[in-house]
Specification:
The structure is a homodimer.
Chain A: H1 2-20, H2 24-28, H3 38-56, H4 72-90, H5 95-98, E1 101-104, E2 107-112, H6 113-138, H7 152-161
Antiparallel strand pairs in A: 1-2
Family (chains A, B): Belongs to the DinB family.
Protein name (chains A, B): DinB family protein
Pfam families (chains A, B): DinB
């Protein structure tokens, strides 16, 4: 699962660079679809990611308010802080943990730990897709959504089987 | 990986139901972002998915033309046909195969088999995010992008460890 998070974080950081070129008023302008504005969408992605990961770890709920992070720099710092927490948590994600059943306060049914990690992964990719439409409307560069060409193939091999393992050629 | 494909296919089918309610001219209307129209985006998702999966299987390239599938029903039938092929292929996706290095005619660098499956997964979620903006603009129901609440937690457990295994409760 770590490579999925690395993918989303790479893409997110590249979007931060794109938004950095835009006037602040474009970032807070309400738009059709998604969470309403570019900045709110980014805040929402970060908030949702950490909230779910903390919840399935059994950690105290975390409820940041958008009003406290209402600039691109603030959301980026928040994103960096959250990432450090999540990297730490994911570094302990054994197969046994990924298969464990978890209960989250805001969701009635039990869930599988990895199911939640995938939920968070899909959540960000989905919102980034929405943002890409807004970027096209704004005529700004769009970040590639490609999973390939990000060095993640090697991460996948290392994640599963340690850094020594190399992929086998296909027959 | 199978649960990711099942996720995308569930979401895709739910969107087919939504688009079925729209007049045909809305489906072919050119829009900002993505592949240009709702129908072209759906065709593109199906085309890209099967092309990559066939390529990493070493199967002959497959190049359907949009002109041959220019209605919602035709794209849905294409989607169903492709899904059957891909289900068959994924059913043979052992860990060894997922880690294998593959070469695809349209991509210079070698890739890891699972890296490509993830690329295809993210590709569809990204485009569905774009479609959700258009759906909001059209004031039609938007399909949930949630990975949870789709029965995929159990699929994950079965995928990895056979149908008998149950998740363990967290401490």
């Amino acid at each position: 699962m770590k490579a999925w998070f690395e993918y989303n974080w790479q893409v997110r950081d590249e979007w931060f660079e794109v938004w950095d070129q835009l006037p602040a008023e474009e970032l807070v302008k309400e738009r059709t679809g998604g969470i309403g504005s570019i900045l709110k969408t980014f805040f929402h992605i970060v908030d949702v990611e950490l909230s779910w990961v903390r919840a399935i770890e059994g950690l105290e709920d975390w409820e940041p308010r958008f009003e406290d992070y209402a600039s691109l720099d603030a959301v980026r710092r928040l994103s960096d802080d959250c990432r450090r927490q999540i990297r730490g948590i994911l570094s302990t994600a054994s197969d046994l943990k990924l298969r464990s059943v978890v209960q989250v306060s805001w969701h009635e049914e039990p869930l599988v730990y990895e199911e939640v990690l995938r939920h968070v992964t899909a959540h960000e990719i989905h919102h980034i897709g929405q943002l890409s439409v807004w970027a096209k409307e704004l005529n700004v560069k769009r970040v590639s959504a490609n999973f390939i060409d990000r060095g993640l193939g090697q991460s996948l091999l290392q994640e599963k089987h340690g850094p020594q393992l190399r992929g086998e050629g296909r027959p």
